[in-house]
Design goal:
- By secondary structure, this protein is an alpha+beta fold.
- The longest helix is centred in the last third of the chain and has 18 residues.
- The radius of gyration is 16 Å and the shape is globular.
- The mean pLDDT is 93.
């Protein structure tokens, strides 16, 4: 299981191939890619800047991945989250989960992404025609994460 917080873009195909390479136990891989949109809350977005607290962010994401491994049969997982200034259509986040079966891979991938949106310490600032603004947490993200509470 691996966590990378980085400025540079990532290659989804290369990351999936690296995870699959040489592991015959893997029967399913689920992935999610988050992308910068050009509109948020009705305003056009020129750029989004993501900030984080190094060390704390990686630990938080690792904890989320560990929770997923405790709930489902996860053989491997990867989270890559970008920081810095991004433009619309740029990739922000990649979550890949490998498992023996699709149900575990899908559920763990969705769980990790829902918890990334609500618990990982990232701060997002959008630049719109009206100026810069910090992006608040969405109630819909909190609601999505609530379903995983036991």
């Amino acid at each position: 299981m691996s966590v990378r917080v980085q400025q540079q873009d990532f290659d989804i195909s290369a990351e999936i191939a690296a995870m699959r390479r040489g592991n015959p136990k893997i029967g399913a891989i689920a992935s999610f890619v988050g992308v910068v949109r050009d509109v948020n809350d009705g305003d056009s977005v020129a750029t989004m800047t993501l900030e984080h607290y190094p060390g704390m962010t990686e630990k938080s994401i690792s904890d989320i991945m560990g929770q997923a491994r405790g709930r489902w049969e996860v053989l491997d997982a990867l989270v890559i989250h970008r920081v810095g200034t991004l433009k619309p259509t740029d990739q922000i986040v990649l979550v890949i989960v490998a498992s023996a079966h699709r149900g575990d891979a899908f559920a763990a991938c969705e769980f990790i992404m829902d918890y990334l949106k609500t618990r990982a310490p990232f701060w997002k600032k959008e630049i719109t025609p009206q100026g810069g603004r910090w992006v608040d947490a969405r109630a819909s993200d909190d609601k999505a994460a609530e379903r995983w509470k036991t």
